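hiii so um. not sure if this is the right channel but i have a protein structure encoded as tokens and i wanna go backwards to a sequence. like what aa goes where. can anyone help
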């Protein structure tokens, strides 16, 4: 039985609608893939480290952060922790992390990150320096033993964003698996200044 002209027109209209929906889906999927590629091409990955140095004149403990990603990292906030406990003051930092012999006669050198930390760049956050003496030698050996025997003795947590305002919280541990967050608390223009002034080491805003 031959189809009427109305039926043929309806079939044609339906086919055109299906083709339009397919084209729309393909365009949406391509846009999604392109956006994902753009975000991946500028994704920052922050990693932190604790460094210890022993030379003929002094001992040094320093905290560093580096960007192992492919795009700039806008660091918004940071915290220093020991075994998961955030350090809220210099006094708490000393009492929790440093042996008694290292809690005095220390020079603190602060580092700063203003704006973005570029891909492949590293930055010292803060360093603690002691003039080499017999009692400081014993204290520094004790500190090194604490750090080497307990990977959670000193930890650094950072919250940072990409140029597309995607944000991550890099908790102590595997920085490549930093969890995504909606936003980061803003610690001001100089994120790591609080690490060196003794008023609020890594405290939340």
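sure thing!! here u go:
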């Amino acid at each position: 039985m031959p189809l009427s002209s109305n039926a043929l027109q309806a079939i044609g209209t339906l086919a055109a609608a299906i083709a339009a929906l397919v084209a729309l889906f393909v365009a949406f999927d391509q846009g999604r893939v392109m956006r994902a590629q753009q975000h991946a091409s500028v994704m920052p990955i922050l990693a932190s480290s604790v460094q210890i140095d022993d030379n003929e004149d002094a001992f040094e403990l320093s905290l560093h952060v580096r960007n192992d990603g492919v795009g700039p990292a806008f660091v918004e906030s940071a915290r220093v922790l020991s075994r998961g406990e955030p350090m809220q003051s210099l006094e708490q930092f000393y009492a929790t992390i440093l042996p008694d012999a290292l809690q005095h006669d220390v020079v603190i050198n602060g580092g700063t990150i203003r704006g973005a930390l570029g891909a492949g760049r590293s930055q010292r956050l803060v360093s603690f320096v002691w003039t080499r003496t017999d009692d400081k030698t014993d204290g520094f050996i004790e500190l090194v033993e604490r750090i080497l025997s307990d990977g959670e003795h000193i930890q650094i947590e950072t919250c940072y964003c990409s140029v597309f305002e995607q944000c991550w919280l890099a908790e102590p541990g595997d920085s490549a698996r930093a969890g995504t967050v909606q936003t980061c608390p803003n610690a001001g223009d100089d994120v790591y200044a609080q690490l060196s002034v003794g008023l609020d080491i890594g405290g939340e805003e």
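oh and The first strand starts at residue 46 and ends at 54.
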